[in-house]
Design a protein that fits this description.
alpha/beta, 8-stranded parallel β-barrel, 11 strands, TIM Barrel, two-stranded antiparallel sheet, globular, about 325 residues
């Protein structure tokens, strides 16, 4: 049975609103919530980019059953892997075991800000593998000494660990990241309903997908909002990973039309269209699907609608 989740999108709401939305999502019946972990928004029109980890700590205290996950954190440039492991262990304790650590190789948009440049994709995968080795060692309670090509760790130990370490997920987009997931991951993460991705890992492994939707009683308003705030989505992973700033995303997407956005993102009040987008992930083998409701100020109405229409329709099969 598929589990349905809600996205806490740090790029479109301030952290106080995100905590309130998480509480409302739990009340609406969502089983889990995933959070982006960005330094910048994709587009200036989104208008936010708060720090994910303190927000998630607040969510852990404000909710009771909602499973929590980063979707995803890059543990290689902006954060050192030892720090990510400490974040995750603390979240495991604060959430009473409800936290899973989603990791990925990152985007230039968020990682260049610390002045270390943006490595080639091959170097990023090398760094990611090393980071995963360090993080999983620390979360298992080991004293970690590590000397790799990209990272050094000296006598690191986590002093506050939950009874069960947080599960570690790896974001995948192709064969190279699939190989990393098979080496290190407890679960798979992807943003495309691609059966080749889910079929590239063991059948028993949990697969977590994410789908953007733009619910609104007015379909035209929904299309306009999706175009304003989410047209970056049309670039695809290979483009989105390398562009450095919101201004670069503005320039790269200036020719994308509202109709083109509406072709890839369901917009408006029709529950069937939104269900179809979620079902595409289920058909591709995903066990968990998180929805992104586009528009930070449009979460309350969406969550009421999700409780009354979306989640019951999805559960009915």
């Amino acid at each position: 049975m598929t589990s349905y989740g809600y996205t806490l999108m740090t790029e479109q709401s301030d952290p106080r609103a995100l905590v309130r939305d998480a509480v409302a999502a739990e009340a609406a019946g969502f089983a889990f919530a995933v959070s982006s972990d960005h330094f910048n928004p994709w587009l200036e029109s989104q208008g936010h980019a708060s720090q994910a980890w303190p927000m998630l700590g607040a969510v852990a205290q404000a909710t009771e059953r909602l499973e929590l996950m980063t979707y995803v954190t890059c543990p290689t440039i902006r954060y050192h892997p030892t720090v990510v492991a400490q974040f995750a262990a603390t979240m495991g304790l604060l959430s009473e075991g409800r936290f899973s650590l989603g990791l990925g190789a990152g985007e230039n948009l968020n990682e260049h800000v610390v002045g270390r440049g943006w490595p080639s994709v091959g170097a990023r995968h090398e760094m990611f593998r090393e980071a995963l080795t360090i993080i999983t060692g620390l979360l298992s309670g080991e004293v970690v000494d590590f000397a790799g090509k990209h990272f050094r760790v000296e006598a690191a130990k986590l002093w506050d660990l939950p009874e069960q370490p947080p599960r570690v997920g790896v974001a995948v987009s192709g064969p190279k990241s699939l190989a990393i997931a098979n080496e290190h991951a407890d679960f798979l993460i992807a943003v495309e309903p691609d059966a080749d991705l889910t079929g590239g890992v063991p059948a028993a492994m949990q697969k977590v997908g994410q789908v953007p939707i733009c619910w609104d009683p007015d379909e035209g308003a929904a299309v306009a909002r999706a175009h304003e705030q989410f047209r970056w989505f049309a670039g695809g992973w290979r483009v989105n990973a390398d562009l450095p700033t919101p201004q670069a995303f503005e320039a790269a997407t200036e020719l994308i039309t509202p109709d083109q956005v509406a072709e890839s993102i369901p917009c408006g009040p029709d529950v069937a269209a939104h269900v179809e987008a979620v079902r595409a992930f289920e058909t591709a083998g995903f066990t968990h699907v998180a929805v992104v409701q586009i528009g930070g100020e449009h979460q309350t109405g969406f969550l009421e609608w999700a409780q009354q229409e979306l989640l019951p329709t999805l559960a009915a099969g």
